[in-house]
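Protocol step 6 of 9: fold each sequence in the batch and record its structure tokens directly after the sequence line. For illustration, a two-sequence batch is reproduced in full.

Sequence one:
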Amino acid sequence: MKKLLYIYIMIYSFGVLAQKRAIDSLPKNIEDYVLVKPGDTLTIQLNEFSIIPKQKFNSKEDIRYYLWFRRKVLKVYPYAKLASERLDTLNNRLEKIESKSKRRTYTKLIQKYIEGEFTDQIKKMTRTEGRILIKLIHRQTGETAFNNIKGLRSGWKAFWYNTTANVFKLSLKDEYHPESVNEDYLIEDILQRAFQDGVLKKQQAKLNFNFQKVITVRKAEINVEKYKKMFAKQKKKSEKKNKN
């Protein structure tokens, strides 16, 4: 009897631990993903509780790149969500302030507050994370990062902000188009699955697109060639640097 009780406790403990890992960490098991080779046919089976089909990968290596990119999206999304909330608060408050001078004063206060909240975090982001943030700000606010800055400051300031971003090969004018841009499609795929699994708290996008239609057209195929080339280029540079 004691032996059976011990076994039961061990099984229960592992079950609880597994549940925590599913929430707090990236998935380690890539066997659940579907690998499709050229010429293969595949019938997409929908999960009982989901209308999002399982992704289709060409190789296990592609799955690892997808998980790398997923980590970036999960890290950046909360900042875009928070930016949208702050701007909504600002706009709602400004509608109730009739005095132009008071509106300017309040806008400056919010501007400094937003910059104080985001500056340090953004400085720590990689180029990929910065690009994802710019795209998600468009998704969550309905305006590009450039236009949001232009609204809070002046067009001249927005121009210089954009020029600075270009030094890092980024543009604050970048838009979010999951229906036509592969990287945006990957971001949306990750977000929708994270919302569904409770990993991220959903905030309604302020852009009009039908992701269900998009993923159906794309047949849930995942293309990570861009990131494979990026890593290969970085590896080549590193090897060349080490030789010198």
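Sequence two, same batch, same settings:
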Amino acid sequence: MTAEEALEAAESLTARVLSLPEIAEARTVAAYVAVGREPGTRPLLEELRRRGVRLLLPVLLPDDDLDWAAYEGPESLRETEHGMGRVRLFEPAGERLGPEAVREAEVVLLPGLAVDARGVRLGRGGGSYDRALARLIATGARSTTGGGPLLAVLLYGHEVVDELPRETHDRPVHLAVTPEGTHRFGDPRPTTD
């Protein structure tokens, strides 16, 4: 993907996420700064911040769990190397709010490598988001009938697949948003727009 194509995809993804009714109502959103070949999230972060949404971004802990900190704009991010060069992330430099802070979010935007028609998300294998999602599930995260935060994975369209292997610790998401469309799970008729 060229730099221009990546920017177009990030802008399209931003528009799709912003069109979600759950985003329009959210006061606090847990999100992340995309790295590598992930769909870009910086335009989305800036637009949500401009709208007055409180944004929580993850900070990777040594045990691969996630702490959270408020996003205060691009200048508040620092590039951090984890695990002797294993992964480089952009994380907020501000005050740490603790792993439980994710419970304050009405919407949680997650990275992933793929998602299937059941909402099973494939992550990078560290279990960081599985732990965060387990905290949310334990406190009544949103079911298909409502309640708790909306869990949405941000991907490219080709990363939405029919079926992925599911481990006992995997927590399904409610929807996938791609530059090409939105896929809702838990409904007998998953839709793409």
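Proceed to step 7 once all outputs are recorded. Observation for sequence two: Residues 9 and 179 are 5 Å apart (CA to CA).
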